[in-house]
## 1
Amino acid sequence: MDKVGIYRMTLWGTDDPAPSGYAFPNSTFEAYQSESDPYARNVLIHRRPISVLQVSQDPYYNVTYDDQSYDPDRWLSEGICSTESTGINYCANRGILDRKYEYILPDGTSVEGKISRVKEMGMYTFRVAVKDEYGAWSDWAEAFIWLNAPPINHVPFVQLTSPSGVDYDHPSGSATTNPLFSWKAVDYDADSMIKAYEIDVQYYWYDYYSNPQYRWISYNNPNVVRSANAISDGTVVPMSAPYYMTLNSNQVYKVRVRVQDELGLWSGWDEKYMSSGFPPNAWLTYPNGTRTNPTAITGTSLIPSWNQSDADANTEFKSWQYRVLDENGMQLKYTSAGGYYDVSRSGSYESGCSVDSDSGSRYGCSYYTRLTSWIAENPFPIGLLPNDGKPLQKQVRVYDGKYWSDWSNSGWFMTNRPPTASLAVPSGSQTTPTIFSELRPTFKWNQSDSDPATTYMYFQLQITNEANNLMVVDSGQFYQGTMSNSGSWVVNQDLPTGGKLRVRVRVFDGIAWSDYSDQTWFYINRAPAADFDWSPKPVWEGDRVRIDNLSTDPDGDKLSALWTVEHPDGTVKQFSTKDVTDLFLNPGTYKISLTVADNFLSSTVIKWMTVLPLTIQSSVNYTANWLIWHEKSGHQTSVPPKEFYSGEIFIVSSISSPAPVEEVTAWIDSTGIDGQPLYVSERLMALAGDAVLFQGELFDPKFQSFSEGLPEGLQTIHFRIQYKNGIVKSEDIPIQIIGNVNKSVGVHRVQ
C-alpha cells in the first residue's frame, strides 16, 4: 500500500463439504460449496514519525538541543501542515505528541532525560525518539559531542549597580558616611562560585611633586578584600557591602570592584563614580495618562506640572527641564523658521518678582524654590506637535544645583482638537425656513475633526421656539458611535405645528465636545390632501352638477382651491371657488383636477367624470291581430318603413335613457285624403316594471274614412322625450300606408 489513509479490508471464505476422496479441487461436489458472510475491518495505513536531533555547546559547555522531529503524514515544512479537525495543532507540534530523551556518558552509562552541561573528556551520545498521535514511535535519532580536553576555567564577571555614575562629570549621589555599594557577579563555569571580592575607592588628588600632578589615590591601602563563597554555576549573584568612610562634600570618588572564582581567577575591574548627597526626584502629575488611556490635551498649549523631592535636607531646586517623546521613546522634533528642534522646554523657579509699572521689567525675583510641586511657566504650543492620532509621552527632571534628577515617569497624552458640527437638514433661515411635512422629521448634520480616525461617540440636538426662549426638545447626550462624517436623528416626539422653530447640534469625539452649530430654522407643515366628489350620479347630459371640495389639511390651515375642467372637445374652464356648480351639456369624459394649497405646500387630485348621453329609441308596431294579417299578406313588418292600413291602431313606444323623464309624446301631423290637416297626438306612459319603456296607441276614427283618412304613401310618426333636466330628444319613424282598413277582406273595422 503506497498511500497514507484508511483502507477497507474484507475477507470471506468458501467451505468444502465433499466426502473424503472428493475434496477440492475435485469438482464432483462443487455445487454444494458455499461462501461465508464477509468480514470487514478499516485499517489505517500511516508512516512512523521521523526523529531529527542536533546538539551544540557554548564556550561554557552548556548543551543546547535542537529537536526537529516530525510526522511526515502531518507536517511537510514550516507553515505547511495538516489542517484536519482533530484538535491537534500540527503546525505547532509537527505532529509529535511525545518524546523520550536519553544520553550516554563517555564511560558508557546511559541516562534518561537531557544533560545541561558536559564536564568530562570523551564522547557524549544524545538520543531522542518521538511518538505520533496513533502511538507509533520513531527510531532513535543520535547526535554526538566529543570533548577532547578537560573543561577550562573562565574568568567571572562583575557589574556595579550602586553607585551608578558613568564618569567624573556625572557622579551618582551617595550617603555622606559609610556608603553601601552593590554589584552583580556571575561565573558561567560549571560548579563555580564567587569566592571573594575586592573594593577600591579612589579620589582625584593634586601633588605638585608627582608626575602626573593629578592622579587617582586609593582611599585605603591595601584595598578591602573580603570572602564571599557564593555559589554561581552560571547564575547571577547579587552582592553588596558597606564601605567605612566619610565623603568630602566637594569631592568626586571613583569606586572599583572585582570578584574572584573558586580557582583564584579574578574578574576585570568595574568602576563607577559617586559624590556626597543625593539627586532629587521628580514625578510628573500632568499629563498623567497611560499609553492605553492618554490624557487629552484640548487647549492650545501643553503645560506640565510635577512633584519634586530630595533625600537631602533643605534642598533648593534651581531649574527644571521637560521633554516630549514619541510612542517609541524617541525624542520628538519640530520645525520652526527652517530649523529642526527638540520638543522640550527648560526654565528656572522664578517667583516673587516685582514689576516696574513704567517699563514692565521684572526685578527682585527669586530663582529657586523649596516647594515640592510646580507648574511650568513655559508652555509648549500644541500646534507644533504632530497630529497623527498617536499617543505621546512627557517627562520632566529637576536640578538641585549639584545633581539632575533622573527623567520622571512618562505622562502619556494626545493632542485632541475639538470636533465641529454643522446642520445640513434643515438649512433654512428665519425668512425662508425649511419645510417639514412630518411631525417627527429627520435632522442631518455634518461632523468633522482635524484629528485622524475620530469616532464620534455622542451628539446633542436642541430645538427651541422662534423667540429662542423655550426649549421644545433636548435630545440629551445621545450615543452614535460612528466614524462617519455625517449624522442623523429622527425626533422622538411630535413637534408643534404652526410656528417656526430653531435647531442646533453639537458632537463629542470621546474627549471633547464641539461648540454648538449655528441655528437653522424650520417649520412643520403637513401637506393638505386634495379630494372632491360630485352629484348627481350618474351624470347625464344637461345635468347641473355640484362638485364638492372634500380636501383636508392635518394642520387645520385655510386652503385655496384651483379647479380645472377639461371638456371632451378640449375646452378648458377654471374656477377658484371652494366648490363648483356647472352645467354639463355634452356627453363624454371630463378631466377634473383640483389643486389645494396652504401657505407652503399643495396637493392635486385628478378625477375623470363621465357624462352619459340622453337617448331616444322609438318604434311603431301592430296590434296582435293586424300583425298576423300583415305577415300572412307578406307585408313589410320588421323594419321601417313598415306597412300599415289607414285606420288600424298604431302601437307607438319609446325607450329612454335610465334618467328621470318628464314626458314622452308621439304624434302624426299630416294631410288627409280630402286635403285637410290631420293631427293626432298621444302621451306615452311607462310600462309597469320597465321604467325606460314608454308606450301608447295612436288612433283617430278619421283614419278609417275613405275621404278623410291617410292617403297611401309614406307618413311620419314623431316621438319626443323631455327629460327632467330640460333636455329634449326627438325621433321620426316613417311608415308606409298601403290602403284603408275597410278595403281589407275579412277584417274587422277596427282591430
## 2
Amino acid sequence: MELVKKKIRTNMLGKTVVDQFMIDDDYNVPDSKNDVGRVVSGEGTIKIEEIKRVENYLRVTGKLYFKALYVTDEGEPRLSSLDGKMPFEEMIYMEEETEGEYVVQVGRVEFTASVIHSRKLSLKAVVELTVHTERGADEETTVDVDSGKTLYKKQRPLELLQLHTNKRDIYRIKEEITIPGTKENIGTLLWTDVSSRKMDTKLGQDALFIRGELLVFCFYESQDGKTDWVEQVVPYEGRVECMGADESLYHHVYDQLGDINVEVRMDEDGEMRALGVEATLDLRILIYEEENIEILEDVYALDEECMPQKRPTVYEELIMQNHSKCKVTEQLNLPELKEEILQICHTGGSLQVEHMEVVPEGIQIDGVLHVNFLYVKANDAVPFDMWSGMIPFSYLLESGKTCDDMRYDITYAVEQLSVGLSGSDEVEIKAVLTFKSFLRSPVNTQVITDLEFHPFDENEMSQRPGIVGYIVKDGDDLWSLAKKYYTTMDGIMEINGLTSEDLKEGDKILIFKENMSIL
C-alpha cells in the first residue's frame, strides 16, 4: 500500500510585531551652511541596513536621512537648506525564534527639526516598524492510495492557492527632465520632493512589468539669487525578471520608493536647465497560482477495519484580487493663514492607516491623510512658508465573501492630491487614495498520513443487524451512512431507487449490509 501525495507550496507567516521608537539627537550646522533662523520644513526617511537576531531580540540598524528647509539668520533673510544622516540601532523583542526570513517594513516616520540656536538643531523622529517572518514550505497532501485491497475512498475537490514566487528585487529609475523656458536657470536646489504615483504592475512571460509616474517638485534659487520652482510628472516603465511567471497567475507587490537623488545638469545648450532624477523601487513580489486538486478525505474497507491517521493542515483559497479607489474631499478653515496665502506652489501627502478590521461587507480601513503645502505669502523678506495638517478618512473595501480569519495583503498610496484656495482663509483638499488588495480565506482540512488495518471483531460484527430502517437526520450524507453500516453508497442508492446522492432530513431509507442478499 502506498499513499499518493502531492506537494502544495505555501507562504508561512509568523506573528507580526509592531515596534515604535524615537531617534533624538542634536545636529551641528555645517560650517558651509548659513546660520539658521527658522525651520520652514523638515523631512526624514529611514533606510534599514542590517537585521540580525540576538537571543530574544531582533537588532535593526540603519540610518535616518533628513533634510530641512530654513530661513537664514544672518544678513538679509533668505531660504537655505541642509541635509544629513544619523545612525540608529533598535532592539525589538521577539517572543520566540521562528523559521524563515525576517521582513521589516518601515511605517510612518514623524520627523521634526527645531532650532536650539543658529548653529545647532534638535532633530527628533518617531519611527514605526512592523516585523514578521515568512518562509516557503512544501506541504504534502494525500490525493489517493495505491493498494491491492478493495478500498472505498472519499475525495474532496479544492481550488487552492499555491505560492509560485516570493522574491525581493530592486527596480532602478533614471530619468531626466528639462525645465520650461519661462523658468530661471537653476543655481542651487533648496528643496526637492519626489513621490510615486499611479504605480501599477502586471505579469507577463517570465517577468513583472512595472509602470508608474514620479511627481517631481524642485524648489530652487536661480543663478541671480531669485527663488523659483518647477513641478513635472515623469513617467517610467520597465520589467523585473520573474522566471516561470505568466498572465494566468496572481500577484501582489509591496513597493517602497527610496534612494532618491535629484541633481542639476546642463542641457544641450550648456545651461543649467536640466534635472537628473534617480530613485529605486524596493519590491517584495508574491506570485500565486490556483490549482484544482482532489484530496483524499476518508477511506474504509468492508472486509477489515481501516483507520486513517490524520493531521490538521491549513491551505488557502483566493477570495479576491482587486484595485479600488477612495475619494477624499475636505474644506478647511485656516484662520491663522487669513490674507496670507497668495499662491500654492506644491502639495505633498502620505497615508497613515491606523486600523483595519474584517467586517461582514469586507474590510473597514480607517486612518489619516497627512497633507502639507508650500505657499507664497505676503512677506517681502521671505515670501514662502509651509503648512501641515491631517484629514481623517474611513473606507470600506468591499468583498463578496468574508470570514473572521480572512488573510489579506493590502497596499495603499496617494494617487492624486490637490489643494485649492476657496477664500482668504479657506482651502479645499481633494485626494484620490488607492488600495490594492489580495484577499484569501484559510481552508482547514485533515491530511491522511497513514492507513492502519485491523481485523474486525467477529462477535461485534455478528451482533450488527443485516438490515436497518433509517430516518435521515440533519447533517447525514450517503458516505457517512455507508461507512457506518458497512456497505457502499451505490448499494444504498440501488436498494432505495435513489438517483441523487443528496439526502433530505426525514427521508426513510433501507440500509443492507453489503454481504446481505435481498430476498
